[in-house]
Design a protein that fits this description.
single chain, alpha/beta, 7 strands, seven-stranded mixed beta sheet
Length: 198
């Protein structure tokens, strides 16, 4: 089966290697537009958009079975979504908001499976609670200056320098990184003829 990851995230690429030895990376390029209101619904809608965009751009053989995986991650605090910061000022504001408190990380996953002449789309979302230690103004400034927060939802990367500020998590750590591998594995197991490592 041809497997395609519809994301340019190096973190998702590394995680997906746990399940597939061979897959293509074709990042979706369309603008992210959503109509849903709840974070878990928003990430599923965006993941489905990405998967569908990449599916429509791929040339495949007539009977070639294919799996396209789309994913989207957002950070939410008290119901408000914190996307990627537009600039250093916004990154500092986000980190001040998250410090000393608990926030949620939602990742939505959309799977488009094409085989035996049938097309199937499966969607799910995973949520992880993340608690931050208090952060001083100096710590926030130094972290933003490192550049790490600038391309990450919520202005931090748990797998990088940002991990030093995380007091604890409740849920799937890999979900915070960008792909809930345990849930993804369980969903993929239910799909016929997808070759998983074990």
């Amino acid at each position: 089966m041809r497997v395609i990851l519809a994301s340019g995230s190096p973190r998702r690429k590394e995680l997906l290697k746990q399940l597939f030895a061979d897959f293509e990376v074709l990042p979706a390029k369309g603008s992210e537009i959503y109509t849903e209101q709840e974070p878990d619904k928003i990430v599923q809608q965006l993941a489905a958009q990405k998967a569908a965009e990449v599916e429509s751009s791929v040339v495949r053989q007539e009977e070639e079975p294919m799996l396209v995986i789309g994913a989207d991650t957002v950070v939410a605090f008290q119901g408000q979504i914190l996307g990627k910061p537009a600039d250093a000022k916004q990154a500092k504001e986000m980190l001040k908001t998250l410090a000393s408190d608990v926030h949620q990380v939602y990742t939505g996953v959309a799977l488009i499976v094409i085989q035996h002449g049938k097309r199937q789309c499966l969607e799910f979302a995973e949520c992880t609670n993340v608690r931050f230690y208090p952060m001083t103004a100096q710590e926030i400034e130094a972290y933003v200056q490192s550049g790490e927060p600038m391309d990450k939802a919520g202005a931090y990367g748990i797998q990088g320098i940002g991990g030093r500020f995380v007091e604890g998590i409740e849920g799937d750590y890999q979900n915070v990184v960008g792909l809930p591998m345990a849930k993804l594995y369980q969903v993929l197991k239910k799909i016929d003829e997808i070759a998983l490592p074990f």
